[in-house]
Specification:
Layout: E1 8-23, E2 31-45, E3 49-53, H1 60-67, E4 75-80, H2 94-107, E5 113-114, H3 120-123, E6 130-133, H4 147-157, H5 164-177, H6 194-206, E7 212-216, H7 224-241, E8 244-248, H8 252-258, E9 261-266, E10 269-275, H9 276-281, H10 286-293, H11 334-338, E11 344-347, E12 350-352, H12 373-377
Parallel strand pairs: 3-8, 3-9, 6-7, 7-8
Antiparallel strand pairs: 1-2, 1-4, 4-5, 9-10, 10-12, 11-12
Helix pairs in contact: 4-5, 4-6, 5-6, 6-7
The protein binds iron/sulfur cluster.
Residues 285-286, 323, 325-326, 329, 331-332, 336, 341, 354-356 line the site of iron/sulfur cluster (SF4).
């Protein structure tokens, strides 16, 4: 499904992540496997935000961490195409040159570099190119470190800079971009609110100039007004630096505000992947339709008819045969319980896994939709 052009940063092909969850039965010698991610394929372009949504337990976080190799994939490929040639060789510091040399040796091969089989040593030079922002800005900051030391940590731990003056200059630069008060760099995290702490986390994630950042439910724990601030900050930083984001969230209305394309996940598999506008106004999978119809409308005069999903999301260790959504799908037919639907391109750049997607067009009228991704992306 990749376009395979120079705009592609990652190609993820048939990604699988399994966990051993014990014996099948008391007397059985075979182990039971939980497939948290099962055959996921998609691509991420440079300077793009891909939203990843689904209910808790669908495997969203596992996909993000498997791409970063924080979790070991058990199958498939994660092809990384390196960064743009934005290193000024004439003025680069020796640390920058060393990091670039290591990267060039490893990355700029034909067809990209497959991260999946690389060991920790081989991955080390690439660590500064990828980063992660966690959900909880309270537990993800070390309370004994100053803000300056927290932000500087990736530079120091990755051996990218050693000179204290250089490190201070870089920390101040990224802190200013993240709209942090430079007077506060000597303070400790307990002195800050949730929104300010998340800005510190974002500054730490971006200080080494990564190509790619996974934001894992990074605004879910914040108040609505702070959420909007952080989303605007991420958009501004993307425009300035060209970084790509994988934005993981369970709230579709939040994802719409930041994403160029959105993937919907259910029990370890992708069920739909499309440009944000196409997915929001022409969803083709019944699960996407159900998630969208559950987004409340703030205007009491507008109709609000949530498509109630029956039952609970199945346990991935006992995932249903055929289409995994058939146990809850109001449109399921006998074939759905037998055959796994193919992952196919239904219209240009709009992918879906449903036997009957051609019959469904859960069109939403723009004027009655609370969340308009196009309007949300326009500058105010
Ligand atoms: Fe529903 Fe069948 Fe489509 Fe699955 S394949 S989403 S069960 S109609």
């Amino acid at each position: 499904m990749s376009r395979g052009d120079s705009e592609t940063l990652f190609e993820i092909r048939d990604l699988e992540v399994s966990f051993d969850v014990g014996k099948r039965g008391f007397f059985s010698g075979t182990r039971k496997q939980l497939k948290a991610v099962d055959g996921v394929s998609f691509d991420i372009r440079r300077g793009e935000t891909v939203g990843l949504v689904g209910e808790s337990g669908s495997g969203k976080t596992t996909v993000g961490r498997a791409i970063l190799r924080v979790i070991e994939p058990s199958g498939g490929q994660v092809l990384y195409h390196g960064r743009r040639g934005d290193l000024d060789l004439a003025h680069a510091t020796s640390e920058e040159l060393r990091a670039a040399r290591a990267e060039m040796q490893m990355v700029f091969r034909e067809g990209g570099l497959d991260l999946a089989p690389l060991g920790p040593r081989a991955l080390r030079p690439l660590r500064s190119r990828m980063s992660l922002v966690f959900q909880d800005p309270y537990s993800s900051l070390n309370p004994r470190m100053t803000v300056r030391d927290i932000i500087a940590e990736p530079l120091v731990a990755g051996g990218l800079m050693r000179d204290r003056g250089q490190i201070d200059a870089r920390v101040r630069e990224i802190a200013a971009r993240c709209k942090l008060d430079l007077e506060h760099l000597r303070r400790f995290p307990h002195a800050f609110s949730g929104g300010q702490r998340q800005r510190i986390c974002i500054a730490r994630a971006l200080v080494a100039g990564p190509d790619f950042v996974v934001c894992d439910e990074s605004v879910s724990a914040l108040d609505v007004s702070i959420q909007a601030e952080i989303i605007n900050l991420l958009k501004d930083l993307q425009e300035e630096t060209g970084v790509s984001f994988l934005f993981i969230a369970h709230d579709l209305s939040v994802v719409a505000r930041i994403s160029h394309r959105v993937a919907v996940m259910y029990v370890g598999r992708f069920v739909e992947y499309a440009p944000t506008e196409s997915l929001f106004f022409h969803p083709r999978h019944p699960y996407t339709h159900a998630l969208l119809s559950a987004v409340p409308e703030p205007d009491p005069d507008l109709p609000f008819r949530p498509e109630r999903l029956q039952g609970e999301i199945p346990n991935p260790a006992d995932a249903p045969q055929g289409c995994r959504f058939h146990t809850r799908c109001p449109f399921a037919r006998p074939r759905c319980a037998q055959e796994v639907p193919d992952w196919r391109e239904l219209t240009s750049d709009h992918y879906v896994a449903c036997h009957y997607a051609e019959e469904f067009d859960f069109r939403r009228a723009r004027e009655t939709a609370h969340t308009d991704p196009v309007k949300e992306r326009e500058p105010t």
